Amino acid sequence: MRTSIYHLMVEFGDCDPAGIVFYPNFYRWFNASSCHLIEECIGWNRLRDDFGVVSMPVLETGAKFINSATVSDRLAIESSLVECARKAFRIRHLLRRDGDLLVEGFEVRAFVVPRLDDPQRQRALELNDEMRSALT
Q1: Of the candidates 14, 79, 86, 102, which lies 20 to 30 Å from 117 by C-alpha distance?
Q2: CA-based Rg of the chain, rounded to a whole angstrom?
Q3: Are strands 89-97 and 58-65 parallel, antiparallel or unpaired?
Q4: How far apart are CA 77 and CA 101, in angstroms?
Q5: What tens digit of pLDDT does each residue of 22-55 get?
Q6: For this structure, is 16 an active site residue?
Q7: Considering the entire predicted model, what is its pTM?
Q8: DSSP single-letter state for residue 121
Q9: Torsion 40-46-50-56 (CA) sign
Q10: Structural domains of the chain, ranges and CATH numbers in brackets
Q11: 34, 40 in Cβ contact below 8 A?
Q12: Could you say which of 14, 16, 98, 129 is catalytic?
């Protein structure tokens, strides 16, 4: 499966009063890393223009927090597409500081398009062979 690395630096505002990263920020960074991975694999413009994709919602998520991070830490998130189902796909995130694993997380996502019978609502798009090939 495809893998990408997303780099970031922890900022003061990412931390709680104890000086460690407030855990919801890891999910925010997972989201950014997923978007980076999808851009590298297939590209947002192509998803929109060729397939009509309007969004990539999270269907399920979770994380195992192994160690903390703090201000000025330089982090790398290795994100990999590890599973493609009919309408959803799973992304694994391994967040490291200097090679040490801090957080192991995942997201299950889908590409959604407007429903034909009601364009104000959305439906999950079935992944075709061309999309699977680009993602894997």
Answers
A1: 86
A2: 16
A3: unpaired
A4: 10
A5: 999 999 999 999 999 999 999 999 999 999 999 9
A6: yes
A7: 0.93
A8: S
A9: positive
A10: 3-135 (3.10.129.10)
A11: no
A12: 16
